[in-house]
UniProtKB/TrEMBL annotation:
InterPro entries: cNMP-bd_dom, cNMP-bd_dom_sf, Env_Response_Regulators, HTH_CRP, RmlC-like_jellyroll, WH_DNA-bd_sf
Taxon lineage: Bacteria, Pseudomonadati, Bacteroidota, Flavobacteriia, Flavobacteriales
Keyword Aminoacyl-tRNA synthetase carried by entry: no
The HTH crp-type domain, residue ranges: 147-222
Domain Cyclic nucleotide-binding as annotated: residue spans: 12-91
Name this polypeptide is given: Crp/Fnr family transcriptional regulator
Keywords per UniProt: DNA-binding, Transcription, Transcription regulation
UniProt organism field: Gilvirhabdus luticola
Pfam families: cNMP_binding, HTH_Crp_2
Gene3D superfamilies membership: Jelly Rolls
Top-level taxon of the source organism: Bacteria
Entry keyword annotation includes Transcription regulation: yes
Length: 223
């Protein structure tokens, strides 16, 4: 199943970043980040969008009380900072590498607009991506504000199933092969890793799920 966060049918590196290929490699250097390095901060000038070549990037903001709210965790092939395309002059979020050896391709807003003007199909995909992302963010914030942690986890698992899941023909289970660590999931649903681990094991004991490091199964008897 296609993920709304990933342009499954578009080779973004080929389309947006031809210098990724050997003929151009010597002329272009990707930005490299280590774990906890910031790509940009809140209030920074919004003059670029970014494409992840490898690694993971956390997108979030801080409340007035200084609490961190994580909006998204993005992986290879995903675009961020896209509000700059809509005329946003400054960032209203931060972007931070959460892995060592994260590699980012920065794309100037003017360059991106030219690519979109010259490729109507690509332009449509970009705006569709932005729309999906806004809807997803709205759902996540509603969960954080109005739902208890257990409900947030179960609804997040449903979201993962939509994006990364498929039905196993042998068992009928919904199999989710996802890119997130338990720490990532805890951040995304606004809880601690120990609490997440307790909830996952409770759901496992109830035969709601089974899980391993990179796979979660929503069992047939609860679908």
């Amino acid at each position: 199943m296609k993920s709304i966060w990933f342009f499954e049918d578009t080779n973004l590196f080929k389309l947006l970043c031809p210098h990724k290929y050997a003929a151009y490699k010597a002329e272009h250097v990707f930005d490299a980040y280590k774990k906890k390095d910031y790509i940009y901060f809140e209030e920074d000038s919004a003059n670029k969008v970014y494409l992840i070549e490898k690694g993971k990037v956390k997108i979030g903001y801080y409340t007035e009380n200084g609490e961190e709210v994580v909006k998204a965790i993005l992986t290879r092939g995903e675009l961020f900072g896209e509000n700059a395309l809509l005329g946003e002059p400054k960032r209203d979020e931060f972007a931070q590498s959460i892995e060592n050896n994260t590699s980012i391709c920065p794309i100037g807003v003017q360059t991106m607009h030219e690519l979109m003007r010259n490729n109507q199909s690509f332009s449509f995909k970009v705006y569709k991506f932005i729309g999906f992302k806004l809807k997803k963010l709205e759902r996540r914030l509603q969960l954080l504000l109005f739902k208890d942690t257990r409900t947030r986890l179960k609804e997040f698992l449903d979201e993962l199933c939509t994006e990364y899941g498929y039905n196993c023909p042998k068992t009928g289970d919904h199999v989710i092969k996802h890119p997130y660590t338990q720490k990532d999931i805890a951040l995304l649903i606004g809880t601690s890793r120990p609490t997440l681990n307790i909830l996952l094991n409770e759901l496992k004991e109830e035969n709601y799920i089974n899980f391993s490091r990179k796979e979660i199964r929503i069992l047939k008897n609860v679908s």
